[in-house]
Design a protein that fits this description.
about 300 residues; alpha+beta; eight-stranded mixed beta sheet; three-stranded antiparallel beta sheet
């Protein structure tokens, strides 16, 4: 069962996680801190809702299935995804109801990745991605500095006077590829925030969830990288006890650990962008390559 973590304001500008969380049933359970989290499990998750634009599906999947021996690979279709949500949220009316009633394939695919990672943990990557380096080479950790989440930059404004078109924050984080331990408070917070955000968006349009088909911008702010980036910054601030902003991450050249979250520089997950100081996808710094087929921008209903 997925717990719900509460965030409590510490001082103006950032928050800190409470040590008490709630299950979807509303029962109090004890959250003993990062020491209770297990290492990121060797599970790889991808989602395929049969979108026709993924013409190279087999070659994409092959790199994840066969380049990472020892990892459990799961490709979730609509039926399998619904089964996992029922399994982990079966007695949680809000996330289960919200997921099952969604008519938007885009929102459902985003939502599913957060639900699955919150419940089981592992490595998620969009279908239009290739592994460049085996996951075991992505990071290493010591016993005194455990890593329970791995997050890469997707955008860095650097010294440019304006944001690149399509970007909304000076630094944004990838959600096309990410990794966390099961029950990580960051991912649980994201699930809660997305659940509320989807419901709020439906109310603002005065439609049911089944008839909610958002604009691209609404997707970015409700379930996409803008929403994800805000949650990441809030968690990093809470776990470090300081108000952490884009100024702490702009120009990042090496992986940097904040609490139990490892932040990776732009070329790890976002090479070949043409902005943000990113290099070619054949750079030695590249861990995986996103081909940006943009299927999410075409609503399949």
């Amino acid at each position: 069962m997925l717990p719900v973590i509460a965030w409590r304001p510490l001082v103006a500008g950032f928050t800190i996680a409470c040590i008490v969380v709630y299950t979807w049933l509303g029962n109090l359970v004890t959250f003993s801190g990062h020491g209770s989290l297990q290492p990121i499990p060797k599970k790889i998750w991808q989602i395929n809702f049969n979108h026709p634009r993924y013409s190279d599906l087999e070659s994409f999947v092959a790199t994840w299935k066969y380049n990472d021996a020892g990892y459990e690979y799961t490709l979730l279709d609509k039926q399998a995804g619904e089964g996992l949500v029922r399994k982990h949220c079966g007695k949680g009316p809000e996330p289960l109801k919200t997921y099952l009633e969604l008519g938007s394939t885009i929102l459902r695919a985003d939502y599913l990745r957060y639900l699955v990672l919150a419940a089981e943990g592992g490595f998620y990557s969009d279908l239009d991605t290739y592994v460049v380096k085996p996951i075991d080479e992505w990071y290493s950790e010591s016993t005194d500095q455990p890593i329970r989440a791995l997050i890469g930059l997707e955008y860095d404004q650097l010294d440019n006077p304006t944001l690149t078109e399509g970007m909304y924050m000076p630094v944004q984080f990838c959600q096309w590829t990410l990794a966390v331990s099961a029950h990580h408070p960051l991912m649980i917070s994201m699930v809660n925030s997305v659940t509320q955000g989807i419901q709020k968006l439906a109310r603002s349009h005065e439609v049911t969830l089944s008839n909610l088909f958002p604009t691209n911008e609404e997707v970015l702010h409700t379930t996409g990288p803008v929403k994800w980036s805000r949650e990441v910054f809030a968690y990093l601030s809470s776990t470090t006890g300081t108000e952490l902003t884009h100024r702490n991450l702009t120009g990042l050249k090496e992986p940097k650990l904040f609490g139990d979250v490892m932040i990776l520089p732009i070329n790890a997950f976002a090479s070949g962008l043409g902005h943000s100081g990113s290099k070619s996808h054949v750079s030695m710094e590249t861990l995986m390559w996103h081909t940006f087929q943009g299927a999410w921008r075409v609503e399949g209903g």
